[in-house]
Structure to design on (250 residues):
């Protein structure tokens, strides 16, 4: 087993403080929230929204097209009936917050950010989806995935073509693959746990990422893998794992 320190970078701690400030900054000044009680809701205006009941959806659960939206799941479950649909999908927006506790299950993507920047997904459980949490598309930058749980998905968290996102303190268990990137640069992965079926962490065609203080164990192919020769400019430091495909992973 390799263990190169257990202290997460001070930058991760700074991110935790910044996110706490973000989520508490509007306390005492919030407008009334809008209840969501049916599937297929399309949010097209900024504001606060909450899932008011458990929902079982034959199609997409919730679509967010507006910026500056805060969606609380309030402990409820969004259940999908088709892997061809999306649980919570955010498209072409900025400044969106999706906040648990709450569960998204049975969809293609549990929670997806597509061409989205400066948004946050925190405290959500995604289970039994094709992809639990997905940040995808050029310009899907500066987002935060924090304190989420991904279980029994084909992929726990994916970042494709997105840059400068932060993936912090997420728990990924019994997915086929834990965290995977594709052509994604300057992202930060801090203090995540990825004990899955095939792969824990897998960076593909991605550079200048920071992978610090994570744990990946009991993955049958590799706990940690980087497709770049000698890890290129990716920084693997202070991670705990048993197997890796290169010595530059520490």
């Amino acid at each position: 087993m390799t263990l190169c320190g257990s202290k997460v970078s001070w930058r991760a701690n700074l991110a935790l403080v910044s996110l706490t400030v973000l989520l508490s900054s509007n306390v005492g000044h919030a407008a009334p929230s809008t209840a969501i009680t049916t599937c297929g809701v399309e949010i097209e205006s900024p504001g606060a929204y909450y899932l008011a009941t458990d929902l079982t959806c034959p199609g997409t659960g919730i679509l967010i097209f507006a910026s500056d939206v805060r969606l609380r799941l309030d402990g409820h479950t969004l259940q999908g009936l088709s892997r061809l649909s999306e649980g919570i999908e955010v498209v072409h927006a900025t400044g969106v917050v999706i906040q648990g506790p709450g569960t998204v299950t049975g969809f293609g993507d549990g929670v997806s950010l597509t061409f989205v920047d400066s948004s946050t997904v925190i405290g959500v459980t995604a289970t039994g989806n094709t992809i639990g949490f997905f940040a995808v598309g050029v310009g899907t930058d500066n987002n935060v995935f924090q304190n989420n749980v991904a279980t029994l998905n084909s992929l726990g968290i994916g970042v494709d073509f997105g840059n400068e996102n932060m993936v912090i303190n997420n728990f990924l268990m019994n997915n086929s693959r834990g965290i995977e990137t594709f052509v994604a640069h300057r992202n930060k992965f801090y203090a995540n746990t990825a004990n899955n079926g095939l792969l824990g962490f897998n960076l593909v065609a991605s550079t200048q990422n920071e992978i610090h203080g994570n744990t990946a164990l009991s993955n049958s192919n590799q706990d940690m893998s980087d497709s770049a020769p000698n890890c290129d400019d990716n920084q693997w430091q202070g991670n705990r794992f048993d197997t890796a495909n290169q010595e530059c992973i520490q």
